[in-house]
Design a protein that fits this description.
The structure is a homodimer. The first copy, chain A, is built from 13 helices and 10 strands. Chain A is α+β, with helices and mostly antiparallel strands. In chain A, helix 1 packs across helix 3, helix 1 crosses helix 4 and helix 2 crosses helix 3. Chain A binds a DNA duplex through helix 2 and helix 3.
Amino acid sequence: MDLNERKLKILQAIIHDFVTTAEPVGSRTLSKKYELGVSPATIRNEMSDLEDMGYLTHPHTSAGRVPSQKAYRLYVNDLMSKYEIPQAEKNAIADELYSNITELDQTIEHAAKILSDITNLTSFAMTPKKDQDVLKFINLLPVDEKTIVLMIVSESGKVSNMTLKLRQGYDEESLSVLSKNMTYAYKGKTISEALTLDIVDTVHNDVSAMNTLKNSVMPSFMKTLEDMLNVNLYMDGLTNIFSIPEYNDIDRAKMFMELIDKKEDFTKTLIQRDDGLLITIGTENDDESMKECSMITATYHVDGKLVGKLGVIGPTRMKYSEISSVIEFLTDNLSNAYRLTGGDDDDDY
Amino acid sequence: MDLNERKLKILQAIIHDFVTTAEPVGSRTLSKKYELGVSPATIRNEMSDLEDMGYLTHPHTSAGRVPSQKAYRLYVNDLMSKYEIPQAEKNAIADELYSNITELDQTIEHAAKILSDITNLTSFAMTPKKDQDVLKFINLLPVDEKTIVLMIVSESGKVSNMTLKLRQGYDEESLSVLSKNMTYAYKGKTISEALTLDIVDTVHNDVSAMNTLKNSVMPSFMKTLEDMLNVNLYMDGLTNIFSIPEYNDIDRAKMFMELIDKKEDFTKTLIQRDDGLLITIGTENDDESMKECSMITATYHVDGKLVGKLGVIGPTRMKYSEISSVIEFLTDNLSNAYRLTGGDDDDDY
DNA sequence: TGTTAGCACTCACTTAATCAGAGTGCTAAC
DNA sequence: GTTAGCACTCTGATTAAGTGAGTGCTAACA
């Protein structure tokens, strides 16, 4: 029994119908709605074959057929045609995306919102991993008697700072020298590298006062570096799931919410995913609680290097083609906006 | 018909029972569970009176009674005794709160988590309003040829910055002078005041190069000031509502989620609330979609000045006494931790 | 040999009916 | 004023019957 053209056509029709209606699709409906050129009886025979081959399932004897995970995978790999976003919609999305492009984080958050609005699913967007971000300089600024501000600037334009309360006073001269020493020691290192550097060897000096100062500053410096590595995860469209028939059951809705609510776990899952456009269906997801969900993600780049992710999660029944296109369009635009300069230019779209 | 002592006792028992069981409470249950010293029949008569007076309602003829909003208000105002948190629990909460006290934002987020864990409700915590925060100094730092970092430090220890890409180069001398001028002009002003200052009058100079520089910097400066005014709202325990009988219905759950999901509106509602411990029950909440919820909030202070808020939202049936105590305990501890120094001391608890 | 019409059969879902249980409200006695 | 007794009400659970969408098989047809 092979997957001839008619079977594929029928399977595609079933997927299309089920994705839009969320109802198991029967042979009569199929023959009425789609131009298949054969009678319901014939379709029934083919459907029966498709079920034997594992592409369809049967909720119960007298219900229509539902595509299996295997069917979706076949569809995504071979059957699905690339969805071309209408130019008008492209413009609308781009306008919306660029309407508020100041800080990277805000833009990313905004992108998630746009994505959930378009797809009516739950969307998420992760700020870039910064482990490969390169340190540019370190500055220690006097604030008052016992307070200084530690500031770390990286190549990507990211500025992190921390206010430090010292146990004792300091002199500005030492502060300035320490800044220079630290910059000298860490400049050009990635954050990951900086975190593993042995401090004692790199920032050395003899003056005792400065040594004290250094000792107060270093732990905060390390802490700030660690903070810089944290990625932010923005989510949007959480309430969209209440409009999805699959989650009309309170227990399922709860399970979904709990999955989403554990942001840290979810971020980890996200980080581990391969780069590029990636569609995972049902049990293809590692996470047990996601075995009835599908996830589509894509990566965007900042300065052509740092990598962030963007995507949606929903029931396996989703419009893979449309959604993939939208996600790719968004990541392309993000990468473009943050190509070199950091996104303050508004003349490159 | 007056609210004699027995009526109050019965009302209190009904509230207590309903708050814990979520089931309408009948006269027999009441007489069995509570030492009221009278028969169910008598209780029935009193209940009937209480209903006439508007303190109880009747879901249907043959159901038990349910406290009305008026009853909860009476309870909160007059009947409720102050709940003393057991010392062991106090210690546990304090330990948990102080276990991770670095940045204010993180602590606030953590406080929300603690609160939702204890109350099994949805909690929220707002970072302080910064409009009364006073500017301390402004710094412009050279990064590279056409890039500078704008940095604003305020009295509260808050440091904000923005990376600026200039259209043309600059010289460090001008940058330094401009920093000093701006600091001179804005130091001691609150953020609100700074935003209304007329720039032209305050930062004046003749050198054309510097003028250009100033013109590039000022919009970003204003933007950064505005950003500083934004408060963050952290929420936690969203999925808790799925365990609450009142929200066992998918539509109610959805309504609740949508209410919560509109973070901006919710933040506004929160900002408008009076300071101090505040309990609003049902229709006492301005928001239409909250007319079946109660909200308890309290304020904490940073440096004895800046004001943030913390609280829970849930069904009108909640443990007002316990929850109020926990919220007060948390805000007291927060205010204490950020009394003067900014929370880096870990020796004041 | 593939396709189709016809028909019996299955199963979920809906509506109606019955029943048990919890609770009230009234009355009359204490 | 309090209480026991009892009829009455209403909900929620359970059961039964009916409906309809859909399948799967068989036999006829091209």
